[in-house]
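Let's do one together. I've listed all components of the complex below, 738 residues spread over two lines.
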Amino acid sequence: MIHDDQNTTTSLDLAKIREDIDSVDQQIQQLINRRAKLAEAVAKAKFASEENPLFYRPEREAQVLRNVMQRNEGPLSDVTMARLFREIMSACLALEAPQSIAFLGPVGTFTHSAVLKHFGQDAIVRPLPTIDEVFREVEAGSAHYGLVPVENSSEGVVNHTLDCFKASHLNVIGEVELRIHHQFLVSSNTRKDSIKQIYAHQQTLAQCRGWLDAHYPGVERVALSSNAEAARRIRNEWHSAAIASEVAASIYELEILHGNIEDNPENTTRFLVIGREKVPPSGNDKTSLLISAHDRAGALLEILAPFAKHNISLTSIETRPALPEKWAYVFFIDLEGHVDQENVKAAIEEIRPLVKEVRVLGSYPIAVL
Amino acid sequence: MIHDDQNTTTSLDLAKIREDIDSVDQQIQQLINRRAKLAEAVAKAKFASEENPLFYRPEREAQVLRNVMQRNEGPLSDVTMARLFREIMSACLALEAPQSIAFLGPVGTFTHSAVLKHFGQDAIVRPLPTIDEVFREVEAGSAHYGLVPVENSSEGVVNHTLDCFKASHLNVIGEVELRIHHQFLVSSNTRKDSIKQIYAHQQTLAQCRGWLDAHYPGVERVALSSNAEAARRIRNEWHSAAIASEVAASIYELEILHGNIEDNPENTTRFLVIGREKVPPSGNDKTSLLISAHDRAGALLEILAPFAKHNISLTSIETRPALPEKWAYVFFIDLEGHVDQENVKAAIEEIRPLVKEVRVLGSYPIAVL
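Okay, and this is what the predicted structure of the assembly comes out as:
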């Protein structure tokens, strides 16, 4: 056991404290290597008992991280400590079996950041140009897992990702949430003291309204199809600014005149992790369903009733046309709970006769960090 | 003390191994928080004894990382273990006093990767549009440290960084080496089966010669001013490819047809960390000198003689004109050793009367990772 020596922490003897740090570092290192050895033992045990063992266990990882955060007494924050453990687990997992992650590239985007946040720096990353290709790589087994954007609080739901699920039998095995910041951008040509228009996606303008009212009152706000389009457009305009990401500033070579101007600093984007297997319950899970309905009008209310009856919270509902068939719709529903729970099972069974198809896209741990 | 239980690692009981992992995790967590408390004690001791204490100590960090690598017994690799310790130290340092790092932006570039590699994920990053601004921010005290590229094995020395040192009194306090990969890029228009030209910087073409001879024998290779220029140019050409970085692929929306095609996988770029203070010896250091000579012809040989005499290894020599003065030159010399070492001191004193000025830009730990 490790004893926390209060006398040490009040000592002013720097050399003595540094000796203590060195000794603590040696113990940390021994323990991390011991953890890695235990991870190798897990791999051996799995190979002995299964033909194609799984090494990445999302439910187990979520439990470890939750435990780390719950028992954390500081001084390091819960989030910092969980991040360090994510890296330690990532290093140990890479030793058992390096995991390759396909994602919507290119490198340097928010999706790449989400991959690093979820899988740590020891995963092998494979940036791909389209969401379809991410699905295909994982289906073909060329990548262990895939990561795709699904909800962007500034640009809404990424419909293309939802559409890919309609044609795929992959499972959702995890979710990642990433905090997103908005930047106030100008080009090198811009007359900074006479900005006449500010371009951005409508939701972004709304998310920065307080800041814009305070700093650019009376300046016209113009809603465009995307923030990237706003950034692209101001390159050749002299009296315009755009609101977009740091990545867009980079791509379009714009200057960040004001950073992080969003009114709500909790502004996030959500990503889904896709894989070929199913994830057992972690104790705090979400389930994504794809429901194919005969008809939109009235169908949704009927479908929602069993969830209410079984006391299941829904966290998101999206509607997509089920083309090519006319008058049919597909609903994507996220709910709290795991399909192995009795109430979730019961609700799904009650919905089944009301619709053309209910498909469980996956049950997976709610994002920990 | 922690005992490594060999029986555990051969046991096939997965649940038992997981219990062991949980117990190891608890100990690691306690120790990391104990380390953070000791770091806080260091901060307190420093505040008690100094008016403007330094929290980031490059020589101490280098020593810790070297110790970690030297005593490492695996199974995790030395580099992986050192990376984990960099993150642990970064988290502890952020608790003492968060460090802000100015760098040549934008985010998502190799320089940003170098900042993360050297300072860990808990540093506050400040991307700036030019190298001059990085110097100014650090001089003004608006950022604790700055990070700028200095040698790029594909594009040679970054002269602009060297020129900034001529007008600045900042010190070099560290170096970072980053492995760089080359990508074979095409645009969506490119006819992949009839590529007639391959564009890149001359050094890049040389670094990929073996791969190009094997995969594109007989295809014309065209040397351009930079790899970024090569990437830009192929956007609108149908029969051309470029060799450039993943970041360039991202900025110019190009497809990576073949990844990591460099013949030598050890291809690196070097960055310097700049700051306002000097760094004490770490035991394995480098020193950067700026020497202003009266005349180029003959001057260099005279200058180099004392280094040979005192058995000092030079790792790099660069020559820059000392404009606006005609017929005067500035040499940038990197050598192995610290200015506090007798032989380095002696060599510098012998050179001093031969030249207009010798300035020690800094002594700093040789890159550990």
